[in-house]
Amino acid sequence: MLRLVLSRLVSLIVTLIAVSLAIFLILEVLPGDPAAIMLGTSAREDTLAALRQELGLDQPALVRYMIWIGGLLHGDLGQSITYKMPVSTLVSERMAVTLPLSLLAILISTALALPLGVMAAARQDRATDRAVLVFSSLGVAVPNFWIGILFILFFATWLGWFPAGGFPGWHAGFWIGLKALLLPAVALALPQAAVLTRVTRSATLEVIGADFVRTARAKGVDRGATLRRHVVPNALIPVTTILGLQLSFFFGGAILVENVFNLPGLGRLAYQALNQRDLVVIKDIVLIFSGLVIVINFLVDIGYAILDPRLRSRA
């Protein structure tokens, strides 16, 4: 197990370095002159030269990359050209919205998908199974931003149960902040819950047909106990892998959902930085999102090994 963790850790570090190199090359080397991209082609040459000097663009690319990585290791993400403040401050403020939103969406998605998938498999080809399949088909077909718009129209505008957008801040109270995040979290969770429901159903059906399950039933173990003790733990192995892959979609989907609900999160900051051509902020946010996905996949690999003894024996 230790060998497996170390090998995955080395892979994580190598992947992070490769991703940071790719981001740096795409945003600072390949486009040509980053200063002209940020200020526009109509900017005066002295203004461009001042920005190049401010950002260190007059130095060789390798030196700039090492300075950027060194700053990241010390918590220095640079200075935003648009906001005139440290990117680390912007990220920490916005992460207080995006992280709870993503975690809440993950909890809702998992709480919906796992029971529905197991229930559909246990009642295959019955009305329950068909209803679950309809839900999963609709969830896959409808994008999360459209679900968010419908939620605003119905629950906020018509019924008035939830705010239509914005975030009052956690200082206004935990429940007030949670209420502001609930609709966007559900809108973000439903499409992924639909996918996870299908995967859970398929994995459960595969395990239900296994020999050890039939043996347990032949020994007199009742249906409910068989599902709890034998079917669900084994079905969770492939489901864990898909859940890990979905976590990256939660962070990516937050960009659209945060803009629909006007939430001051990391996704909205990325959208604003893209519109304002603030390459300093874009570069850091893309690396943060990429790093989160890579770390999550690392944790999923470890969790997969814990759930599946075959992987531990090979390590």
Automatic annotation (TrEMBL):
Major location category of this protein: membrane
Lipid bilayer topology: Multi-pass membrane protein
Key words, A-Z: Cell membrane, Membrane, Transmembrane, Transmembrane helix, Transport
Ranges for domain ABC transmembrane type-1: 95-300
Sections of the chain in a coiled coil: none
Pfam families in alphabetical order: BPD_transp_1, BPD_transp_1_N
Protein name, UniProt field: ABC transporter permease
Stated family: Belongs to the binding-protein-dependent transport system permease family.
Protein's UniProt keywords contain Nucleus: no
Family annotation (Gene3D superfamilies): MetI-like (1.10.3720.10)
Transmembrane annotation, as ranges: 9-30, 95-120, 132-160, 172-191, 235-257, 285-307
